[in-house]
Write a structure and sequence with these properties.
homodimer, 146 residues, alpha+beta, Arc Repressor Mutant, subunit A, Dna Ligase, domain 1, 2 domains, three-stranded antiparallel β-sheet, three-stranded mixed β-sheet, 6 helices, 6 strands, binds manganese (II) ion, binds zinc ion, DNA-binding
Chain lengths: 146, 146
DNA sequence: GGTATACTTGATACAAAATATCAGTAAAGG
DNA sequence: CCTTTACTGATATTTTGTATCAAGTATACC
């Protein structure tokens, strides 16, 4: 069992939910997918090992993980939600408006803002998402000499 | 005609797209909606004044505005995408994982990170989205004394 | 271990949201 | 005007997400 998956499953139990086979399989598949996956794609992955697990259960587990702050749905070109892992406290994307390419980065100075805003709103922050939008190198070149 | 809408329409023209009645009506309705609206809700709004405008055109216009970096689709509890305006360069949300309540804030120190990352990836940043996730005051209380 | 209980599951049906297609329309430029 | 080509909107279809409910199973308690 993956360490990361184990951590998430513990979180499920700690919040009063049950540790079931389905949830174990789904969380494991999610962690192995390295994020950025749609619910239906995840369901397909899960079924490679556990063919009996239903699509609904995957949807419901993702919903639960949202509530626990473990994942967050985002748009990524297509209509279906893509789920990203928020388990490390932060997730940072550089997203091209044109080709929808997504690059990851780690730098982040959200800490100060977070503290300030958390106080102001009495909000308990568990994670954050920073998306920088614009044009990637290639798309920028295309649009400049056209 | 709203100043904000005018600005967006200019942007459409400057990028080689046509300024049509449909796009004018849609952009105006979008600006008046103050953001956080789904495609279908926007279509309904548009039709109050221009009943002949089709749903497809609204979807396509939103797609175009995404490409121009004017809006960004996000998830907000429900299944349908909610479009938020990125026209001021940044958009900042505090989102409760449980009740899905969304609060706006302005503080942001993303500037430094942005500069650094832009250089590193040769990326042309036009806007950003910062989402802080966690539990709002009420939801936090509920989960602590249960 | 056995049992009661509430939580969870998955098949099915359904609703909502997004996309593909295409003939007709109108914006832009000359 | 007239031509060209991007754009539109009706329609059909696919994809994605949700509601329901009988059957299954994790957990607590004995
Ligand atoms: Mn990512
Ligand atoms: Mn907002
Ligand atoms: Zn690009
Ligand atoms: Zn809340």
């Amino acid at each position: 069992m993956d360490r990361k998956a184990e951590k998430i499953l513990n979180r499920i139990v700690q919040n009063g939910y049950r540790r079931t086979n389905a949830r174990q399989a789904i969380v494991t598949a999610l962690v192995n997918s390295a994020g950025h996956i749609t619910a239906d794609d995840l369901a397909d992955n899960v079924r490679e090992k556990e063919p009996h697990i239903g699509r609904m259960t995957v949807y419901r587990t993702l919903e639960l993980l949202c509530e626990l702050g473990v994942v967050r749905p985002i748009f990524q070109g297509t209509g279906a939600a893509h789920y990203i892992l928020m388990d490390n406290g932060g997730h940072h994307h550089l997203i091209c408006n044109r080709c929808h390419n997504v690059m990851e980065f780690e730098e982040c100075s959200a800490a100060m803002v977070m503290e300030k805003v958390a106080k102001q709103f009495n909000f308990h922050i568990s994670s954050h998402l920073l998306e920088l939008h614009g044009l990637c190198e290639e798309c920028n070149e295309i649009s400049s000499h056209q």
